[in-house]
């Protein structure tokens, strides 16, 4: 050590989730299982929707795009977390840390906007069924998706611009298993109060805002569906209740992580597992297992795959 007190931090050390061997083992088994299952499930959805012309409608395209995003969500945090679980010295390079923050906010932002687009799609389908195909035309469908990516990108870059030049002069231990802004900012050698406020305002507000918009629109759709028909409303109700479940599961941890003022507690770490490991797995389960059309299409894709393998 040259003793200079402006030494540059080139890597960060994670404390991980827990020191207990048993908890680590449980985490290892469950995370690996959920990770593999969500990669398989989401890949199968993307493959099924893109290869089956019966499913070329806005709802399924949005679903396939959500699955595509979920492949990304699970891959930003989970593999590194699993790899680190039993290592004594868990480190991540400065660049790796910045990359994690960038992708978490990009993918998280896009996922929130896609969920909103899916709510809009259901709104049109249930409240304006006669105009569904003229409103949700392919152009609008693509426009919604492009908009989701652009807004997600702006959101992520906007946050990074503020933190990428932060001075780090020594402390480099993150009490977590991945890099994200609330704890990252606290390590910088500045008075981080204003930055913390910016993060809470930006990420907290976006997640809280879209959460309330989503919940309100779902309530609106439910009320409309109830008024219109009695037979259709039951089906609408069961579809919507699953959507609402996904929304709560996904947004709950986000809102907590960004608006909870005391990152000293360990609760946010375990909640982050929900978003990183569990939601990407649950989305395909929730959206497809209750959908007959999707299940049949998946069966077709699987049998095709098997036939191809037998031929080659
Ligand atoms: C996303 O949706 C578009 C249509 O809007 C579709 O063409 C594309 O295949 C979808 N992407 C994936 C990965 O399924």
From TrEMBL:
SUPFAM superfamilies with a match to the protein in the record: Family A G protein-coupled receptor-like
UniProt-listed InterPro entries: GPCR_Rhodpsn, GPCR_Rhodpsn_7TM, Olfact_rcpt, Olfactory_Receptors
UniProt keywords, alphabetically: Cell membrane, Disulfide bond, G-protein coupled receptor, Membrane, Olfaction, Receptor, Sensory transduction, Transducer, Transmembrane, Transmembrane helix
One annotated GO molecular function: G protein-coupled receptor activity
Main localization category: membrane
Annotated G-protein coupled receptors family 1 profile domain residues: 41-287
Annotated PROSITE patterns: G_PROTEIN_RECEP_F1_1, G_PROTEIN_RECEP_F1_2
GO cellular component, one term: plasma membrane
Subcellular location: Cell membrane; Membrane
Transmembrane domains' residue ranges: 23-47, 59-78, 98-120, 140-164, 205-225, 237-258, 270-289
Coiled coil spans: none
Topology within the bilayer: Multi-pass membrane protein
Family: Belongs to the G-protein coupled receptor 1 family.
Protein name listed in UniProt: Olfactory receptor
Organism: Loxodonta africana (African elephant)
């Amino acid at each position: 050590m040259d003793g200079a007190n402006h030494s540059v931090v080139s890597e960060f050390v994670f404390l991980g989730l827990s020191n207990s061997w048993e908890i680590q083992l449980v985490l290892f088994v469950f995370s690996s299982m959920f990770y593999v299952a969500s990669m398989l499930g989401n890949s199968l959805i993307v493959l099924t929707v893109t290869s089956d012309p019966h499913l070329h409608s806005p709802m399924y395209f949005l679903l396939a795009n959500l699955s595509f995003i979920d492949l990304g969500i699970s891959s930003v945090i989970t593999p590194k977390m699993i790899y680190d679980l039993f290592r004594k010295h868990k480190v991540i390079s400065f660049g790796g840390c910045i990359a994690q923050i960038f992708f978490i906010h990009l993918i998280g932002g896009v996922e929130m906007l896609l969920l909103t687009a899916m709510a809009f799609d259901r709104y049109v389908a249930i409240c304006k069924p006669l105009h569904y195909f003229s409103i949700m035309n392919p152009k609008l469908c693509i426009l919604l998706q492009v908009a989701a990516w652009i807004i997600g990108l702006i959101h992520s870059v906007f946050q990074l611009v503020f933190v990428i030049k932060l001075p780090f002069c020594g402390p480099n231990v993150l009490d977590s298993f991945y890099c994200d802004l609330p704890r990252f900012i606290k390590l910088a050698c500045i008075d981080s109060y204003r930055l913390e406020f910016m993060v809470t305002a930006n990420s907290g507000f976006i997640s809280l805002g879209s959460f309330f918009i989503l919940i309100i629109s779902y309530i609106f759709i439910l009320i409309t569906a109830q008024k219109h028909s009695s037979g259709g409303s039951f089906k609408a109700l069961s579809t919507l209740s699953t959507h609402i479940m996904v929304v709560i599961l996904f947004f709950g941890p986000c809102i907590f992580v960004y608006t909870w003022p005391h990152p000293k507690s360990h609760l946010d770490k375990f909640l982050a597992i929900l978003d990183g490991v569990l939601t990407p797995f649950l989305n395909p389960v929730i959206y497809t297992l209750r959908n007959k059309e999707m299940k049949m299409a998946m069966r077709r894709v699987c049998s095709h795959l098997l036939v191809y393998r037998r031929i080659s």
